[in-house]
Amino acid sequence: MSKEKRVAIVTGSSSGIGASTARELAARGWNVVINYSKSADAAKKVADDCIAKGAEVVVVQADVSQDADCVRLARAALDKWGRIDALVNNAGSTKFVAHNKLDGLSADDFLRIYSTNVVSAFQMTRACAEALKKSGHGAIVNVSSIAAQWGTGSSIAYAASKGALNSMTYSLARVMGPEVRVNAVLPGYVDTPWQINAHGAEKAAAHAAKYASHNPLNAGCSPEDVADSIVWLIEGAPKTTGQLVYVDGGTHMAVPR
User: Fold this and answer.
1) What spatial distance separates the first Cα and last Cα of the chain, rounded to whole Å?
2) In three state form, how does the secondary structure of 44-75 look?
3) Which whole number is the average pLDDT over 194-209?
4) Is 224 buried (19+), middle (13-18) or exposed (0-12) by CB count in 10 A?
5) What is the mean pLDDT of residues 45-73?
6) Rounded CA separation 17/91 (Å)
């Protein structure tokens, strides 16, 4: 068991951006905590991929909207390796509701989405704060969305929650420094199972093509693209904190519709 290798916790890492981030960190010599809420088989597959890349892995089922589960997730890393060097707050939730359908969202929908998209990131930061500060090069990356800046996305509740996450990124960057850097990535449309499950494969592909046609790079965005930026913020940006980094091919420069 190697306690010299750096350790990252990636929430919501059984698929999509979280899974790609865990794999990339493993390939770069990190040990990784894989977190899932429901998909045990998918989490095991990601863990196996990370192990094949040379990483040691702990797989933890945890609902990060619950503070006790966040503490348990941090403890799993500390019990295994005695350190936490990076935290990726990737776990997210939404409800797909057209923005003009105001009756489609309830207070309970907002509370559930905020619990996963905002409160969990705060609770995970608090649970990992002491270890991250001891690391000497601690880093936190919150996974947000351009929906926060545009007021678009899967629902008003989702966009609002990501706006709150952006604001909290600034606050945490102030209070976690100088030992820990805190940044956020803001992906545009990302080709993930989440989109396919919501829209179906054909419509998801159409959305991806339309997205690519509206940005300067004329390119779509994959989970691996976002993972590259997350890992850069962890490993390669020593003087960068309190930043919202767009990963969208430049889509945020277009006029929102």
Assistant:
1) 52
2) HHHHHHHHHCCCCEEEEECCCCCHHHHHHHHH
3) 67
4) middle
5) 98
6) 9
Q: Which residues are catalytic?
A: 158
Domain boundaries, the chain: 7-190+224-247
Q: What is the mean pLDDT of the chain?
A: 93
Average pLDDT over residues 102-117: 98
Encoded amino acid at 9, one letter: I
Q: Are 122 and 52 in contact (CB under 8 A)?
A: no
Query: Which pTM value belongs to this model?
Result: 0.93
**CATH level 2 (architecture), domain 7-190+224-247:** 3-Layer(aba) Sandwich (3.40)
> According to the model, what pLDDT value does residue 256 have?
57
